Model the fold of this input.
Amino acid sequence: MADTVVRTRKQPSAAGTPQRVGRLPRAAVHHPWWFALPAIAVFAGFFLVPNLLNFYYPFTDWSSYHADIAFTGLDNFRTIAEDGSLLRAIRTTLVYALLAAVFQNGFGLVLALLLEDDSRFNRFFRAVFFLPVLISALATGYVFQALLDQDGAVNSVLGTDIPWLGSTTWTLVIVTLIHGWKWMGLAMLIYLAGLKGIPGNMLEAARIDGAGPWRTFWSVRWPMLAPAVTFNVTTALIGSMNTFDIVQATTGGGPAASTEVFNIYMFRIFGQGLYAQASAMSLVLFLVVVAVAIPLVVGLRRREQML
Amino acid sequence: MTPVWRYGRPALVLLLAALAVGVPLWLVAVTSAKPQAEAIDPNLDLPRHWQPAANYADALAEGAMLRGFLNSLLVVVPSVILVLLLGAGAAWVFARRKSKLVSAAYALCISGLLLPPAVITIVMELRQLGLAGTRPGMIAVYTGMYLSTSIFFMTGFIRAIPTELEEAARMDGATPSRIFWRIVLPLLRPVIATATIMVMLYAWSDVFYAFFVLGGGDRATLPLNLYQVASAQLYLNNWHLVFAYVVVMSLPMVAVFLVGQRKIVSGITSGAVK
Done:
């Protein structure tokens, strides 16, 4: 592929000889389209096209059991609606995304405030708290499975016998806490940058006006952190709707499917050869993400402008 | 600053770091040095019998780790290079040209920041193209998935660079290709460092998309192998091998981070808060 890139680059330099410069718009000569075309082609071919196909295959009976693919209308959606998996996946994923975003941002912000000053001590511990980001999510999941297993390390330290990963209510919360743990380092870095971007004289003015640390935070720093909040909340919510590894490694979707988010469901159903049904769930995920993302981005942008 | 807080803050940081990061890492480290009998019920005790060498050798052999490592490199490195090169080319055009068509193309190209990849139909498409289960297929999928991120970061970055440098080079008769390679790409260096680490973070540890595209078999990447070793653990109870594997698999990312720490940190943060 690198070859074609190099080859196409040579042609326009021949075409862009001085005589033609006068006729073409200036931008077309200086920043020709073909620099963008390979990216657009790959993105369209391997991201947009599959998403478009995803609006067709859910309405077919594509599966591993027969070679032909026939149009079957809403059958797949009826199946997933009637066996309860559709609503459960939507609810589980939304709760997961919300809690994961809260934990990730909460931890990240607290760490950023604790490690705000640029001392050597703080720089070292910033790197320490960034370590979980570098460890793969699958590995993270296994580490916490070993910690939280009923025969695991946490119970043996506390002397308890709690099935941390065996509750149909609380395990989802625990898994989102792990998700927050894994990504808190990234949120911390972005909040740190946001804090650093606050002009010193603003803080000085607040101090002279007699504002304590608490008041300064809520009246000056928190509003000034708006862009960092926008970025962090958006990426956390959207990213955690695409979660798979942590859930798969800790609970595999259990107990009793109480942590079965979209991707876990797709993975399981695809493994059973029911491709169209998995694709139907994938389309629902797409629609849910769009339904969450658009108001979210618009709302957070507006909040930034108001503050 | 009150004196309580002056000493309280570092103490709190130490406590949090020990509990939140220290304990999990300690568990990984000690378990990966234990014999199987001690590792069945994972705990924080030091191994009574140390055998790290044997465990790591086992993990290397049973998890086909060298092959997995090579497989990971063979898909992640080309993906990163393509994401950076193609992304830089597109970002340059998107940042410098102004028209409705350019804005539309830019909006379309960064839609991948929010939209989820349609993983099921990706498999369908790759099968029809004959790319299912192949490395080029995996590379194409990763490149498509992460192009949006790199285009978004790079476009923002290039917009902030004054055009004078490019104009001066143009006066001297440099062609667009020459300007791109000699001026734009070198200027992009900080954001390239960021994009590299971001793509590596996701692609190096990805197991979900790799599962659909590559499956198990000869081309399985490191995380896929880890998944297989750990799934077998249900029957074998081999936490010691799982954690030896986790250590080896995580080391490259930690090494990359330590080498490029300063650039990575400044890159991630400057791109995000704009």
Summary: The mean pLDDT of chain A is 86. Residues 77-306 of chain A form a domain with the MetI-like fold fold (CATH 1.10.3720.10). The two ends of chain A are 47 Å apart (CA to CA).
